[in-house]
Amino acid sequence: MARILIADSDDASRQILRETLEAQPKLEVVDDLDEGSELSQLIGPLNVDVVVLDLGLRGVDAIDLAGKLRGQHRALGIVLTGDEPTFDDLRAALRAGADDFLPKPLETDTAGQNIAEVAQRVEQRRALLATSEFGSGPVHAKVVAVYSPQGGVGKSMLAANLAVVLARESGRPTVLVDLNLQFGDIDLMLNITPERTVAAVIQRMNQLDADLMESFLTLHDDSNLKVLAAPARPEYADTITTFVVEKVLQVLRERHTYIVIDTPSFLQDTTLTALDHSDEIILLTALDLLALHNTKTALAMMQKLRYGPDKVKLVLNRSNADVGISPEDVEQTLEYDISAYIPSDGRVAVTSVNEGEPFVLSQPKTQIAQSIRRIAYQVMDREAEFLDESPEPVGPTPSGGGGILGWFRGG
Prior knowledge:
Layout: E1 2-7, H1 11-22, E2 27-33, E3 50-54, H2 62-72, E4 77-83, H3 87-96, E5 100-104, H4 108-131, E6 142-147, H5 155-170, E7 174-178, H6 186-190, H7 198-201, H8 210-214, E8 218-220, E9 225-228, H9 242-253, E10 258-262, H10 269-276, E11 280-286, H11 289-304, E12 312-317, H12 327-334, E13 338-342, H13 346-355, H14 359-362, H15 367-379, H16 383-389
Parallel strand pairs: 1-2, 1-3, 3-4, 4-5, 6-10, 6-11, 7-9, 7-10, 11-12, 12-13
Antiparallel strand pairs: 8-9
Helix pairs in contact: 1-4, 2-3, 5-15, 9-10, 15-16
């Protein structure tokens, strides 16, 4: 029997909902409140399974309260109600971790059924937590977006290989999201054939939870990495909205320790949403004048968005290329420290893409593979372990700087 707590300042609505829920054979209303100042203190003592919060509840901000409850009680079912909810209301509810939103006036024929379905999800969450190694505490999910404002610098290559290392060497659930919605190619790089893509999620948004999300993921057998593939056809890209991206990341966080996002180079709403919801952004650049120019612009944009150095990590690809620009030039020009270096190895990289096998698996001893392993260990906050294992990690390789970057600095 699922135990339900109702919190609604409208007496009539509260009474209608109580009668509706008590007519359900597996639901029990343990209390109803007309204001919310003490609601959070009742969840534990009343052994509440599902709380129904109205947006107009006196004494609290229902959205803020929902977010706090989600943080305190991972398995708790949270259902919000409200009069004529706007798109912003629905978006805020999802971001707060609500399981469902029921618009008023409530349809009594379906409200009880919807809340009963949420109660079933609560049972599934508790079963998962009871058997999971994370059951004794919260899953500390980390979302890492791989971004570059310049195409052709190896962004997808980095995202794919990074995700594979995280999946294999962390021993934790890891998922790779291909957000290149028009021309995603992660499936080719990993030689997988997705049966469903992120486009299929749209049809099930109202029911989307961690269990359902599993049906949209494709397993990469060699690494145990899961992949949420990009749409199979470019025209489907416009159907993926910021709302979809937010919801997908929210649900993926429930079961995955590491979530890697391969973002497109051009900035659009979905890209900005992914960057905003990421814990870390790997900003990839190269020893190329155009790439550095675009990277400088991207860094300025990220500073305006208040993404600090703790969030944005600058990674230099093809760091040993002899093109008259050195890594030191890059740091001085961008006024930003380089966090990691990836050496140039076209033979290994091209062969890896052509064969659909990540080089961290096929050529693990190469410098390029080891450089990405180091980035993965940085993401896992275990870089010291990597350095102990590899006494000579890949670092900057000066290539003879010159005056070519002077105009960036006004010189």
